[in-house]
Amino acid sequence: MRDTAPRILFATDFSEGSDVAAEVALAYARRLGAALHVLHVTRDGLEDQMARALGEHVLRFAGVPVTAVVESGSVAERIVRYAQTRGIDLIVLGTHGRTGFTRALLGSMAERVARTASCPVMTVPPAAIEGGLSSAASAGALTLAVPEEGRSCLVCQAPCDELICESCRAQIRGEALQRKLEEYQKVPL
């Protein structure tokens, strides 16, 4: 039988965007009295080196129960599998802030996790702390909004029956068209 304390999984890649998400995950863990699982996924052969780095990284999570784990393999797949096998209630991920064409070309690990995870996934953009999210989280003013059917736009997180809402689709199309226009204007005639 599982204990009643919520479980939050924070997946880190040690980037600045991940540091922002760490603050949010910690604030939620403190506010909810949750156990915090910190996961780093690396390439084969680097597990020991990354375990030492992760050990230093989790020192910032004083005051909450922490489980730190390093695994190797496909990042999105490992995050989702870890969440499923450990009964995680919420996954918190930082994003790199790519949009439009760059995001379409490179893909988004956070998007893959959000599409395949069986629990809510919170993505935290790099600018969240600048926007005051950290102080709101620390003050306990944050609430987790999960759409009624459990579905939301993968870009803006607004409740939506589709993967990407119409507004975000229009913005993505506009960005792609703008870039195409800029490329055509650079071509000598």
Summarize the SSE layout with pairings.
Layout lengths: L6 E5 L4 H17 L2 E8 L4 H11 L8 E7 L2 H12 L3 E5 L5 H7 L2 H8 L4 E4 L8 H6 L27 H21 L3
Parallel strand pairs: 1-2, 1-4, 2-3, 4-5
Helix pairs in contact: 3-5
What features would you highlight for this structure?
189 residues, alpha/beta, Rossmann fold, 2 domains, five-stranded parallel β-sheet, 5 strands, 43% helix
Rough shape?
A: globular
> What order do the SSEs take from the amino end to the carboxyl end, as H and E?
EHEHEHEHHEHH
**What order do the strands of the largest sheet run in, or round the barrel if closed?**
3-2-1-4-5
Uncertain stretches of 5 or more adjacent residues: 101-107, 131-149
Please tell me about this protein's structure.
With 189 residues, the chain is α/β, with parallel strands linked by helices. It folds into two domains: 7-144, HUPs (Rossmann fold); 146-189. It contains seven helices and five strands, in the order βαβαβαβααβαα. The chain has helices at 16-32, 47-57, 75-86, 100-106, 109-116, 133-138, 166-186, and strands at 7-11, 35-42, 66-72, 90-94, 121-124. The protein has a five-stranded parallel sheet, sandwiched between helices. Strand 2 (35-42), helix 2 (47-57) and strand 3 (66-72) form a beta-alpha-beta unit. Helix 3 (75-86) packs parallel to helix 5. The longest helix is centred in the last third of the chain and has 21 residues, at 166-186. The N and C termini lie far apart (71 Å). 28% of the residues are buried. Residues 101-107 and 131-149 have low confidence and may be disordered.
